[in-house]
Every structure is written in structure tokens, then in C-alpha cells.
Specification:
3 helices
Length: about 80
């Protein structure tokens, strides 16, 4: 249970050759997009909240799906 692993998505991106810089920039871009979506929710009002949540969930499902199929988790040897 308390053993080390390398299954977090940022670790898998680095292992796949993205490097720390590119992974960090991708994380910042994702946070920026989520911030813009949150701000849009403030200005669009309650009627748009279900659509915004659907957009966020869809975005994360697509990103997770892309990572799962392109970057399979590797076993840690050691």
C-alpha cells in the first residue's frame, strides 16, 4: 500500500519523453482553460452551469482516455 509507484499522469508524461518543462506547461495550460471555464460560469449564470460541467467532464474524460491509450503505466523495477 505504501510502496512507490510511477502511475500519476505527470510521471507518465515525463516517462513518455515529454520532459518536465513540457509536462509543466501542459499542466499550466489545463489550469488556465479550467480557470477560463470557471470565469465563464460566473458570467453566464446558473442556466449554463450544467453545460459547463458537461464540458469539464468531457474534457477530462478525453484527456484521461488519450493518456491511458497512449501512455500505458509501466511497472516499477527496483
Amino acid at each position: 500500500m505504501w510502496e512507490g509507484h510511477r502511475e500519476h499522469y505527470y510521471q507518465r508524461l515525463v516517462q513518455a519523453g515529454w520532459g518536465h518543462r513540457k509536462t509543466l506547461l501542459a499542466e499550466f495550460a489545463l489550469m488556465g482553460v479550467m480557470s477560463l471555464i470557471a470565469l465563464a460560469g460566473l458570467y453566464l449564470g446558473p442556466a449554463a452551469h450544467h453545460g459547463i460541467w458537461a464540458l469539464v467532464v468531457a474534457l477530462y474524460l478525453v484527456l484521461i482516455g488519450m493518456l491511458e491509450f497512449r501512455l500505458p503505466a509501466r511497472a516499477v523495477h527496483g
